[in-house]
Amino acid sequence: MNLFEDIPEKLPEELMTVLAEDSSVRIERIVSDGHASPDGFWYDQEAHEWVVVLKGSAVLEFEDGLVELNPGDHLLIPARRRHRVKATSHHEKTIWLAVFYGTLSD
Amino acid sequence: MNLFEDIPEKLPEELMTVLAEDSSVRIERIVSDGHASPDGFWYDQEAHEWVVVLKGSAVLEFEDGLVELNPGDHLLIPARRRHRVKATSHHEKTIWLAVFYGTLSD
User: Fold this and answer.
1) How far apart are CA B42 and CA A80, in angstroms?
2) In chain A, what residues touch B4 (CB-CB under 8 Å)?
3) Taking the model in full, what pTM does it have?
4) In angstroms, what separates the C-alpha of B72 from chain A's closest C-alpha?
5) Is ipTM strictly over 0.85?
6) Which residues 6+ apart lie within 8 Å of B26 measured at CB?
7) Which of A67, A85, B38, B85 places its Cα 20 to 30 Å from the Cα of A12?
8) SS3 assignment, position B55
9) Contact residues, chain B, for A24 at CB < 8 Å
């Protein structure tokens, strides 16, 4: 299996694919195509999330500012650190890899 | 931080960098430069390992055959599945991302 394959040409919504998981970890590929979080929506997760952008680009918004992510850029979003996806590239699909761990919710 | 940066030009040994961890998960970047497991050496891990090659190439050996990994190729190596790194590219550095989970040993 390849992270850069099996991506539909049209993505009306973000595509999330679970690559591996158990009770304490979930590894997901996320493909965005210009998607962003709805206005006023904030993620407030029970799990820690380590995330990397592998292709495309994205801007994450935190309560204290913005972080731009280009290919290879990674960061850890600790549980309960509120964040949202401010933007993803409109020029190409953005491929993220996210590892959720700690307290996983469904 | 960027997965493709902060890599020394010369790597006498594989470079392993822990990117995030807790009691049940450890996320590592591994950089190989033509490295392979010593003859006769097999990994036999207590943890599950999900691994992806992001740059370069590698060949993993299992007891039932070989698996070639090119950029984006990923696979899950369940705990106790014996494996070794048969080869990594001699033409460029190989950058792996590995997520160990389940029973972590040091």
Assistant:
1) 40
2) 71-72
3) 0.96
4) 5
5) yes
6) B18, B20, B47, B99, B100, B101, B104
7) A67
8) strand
9) 24-25, 101-102
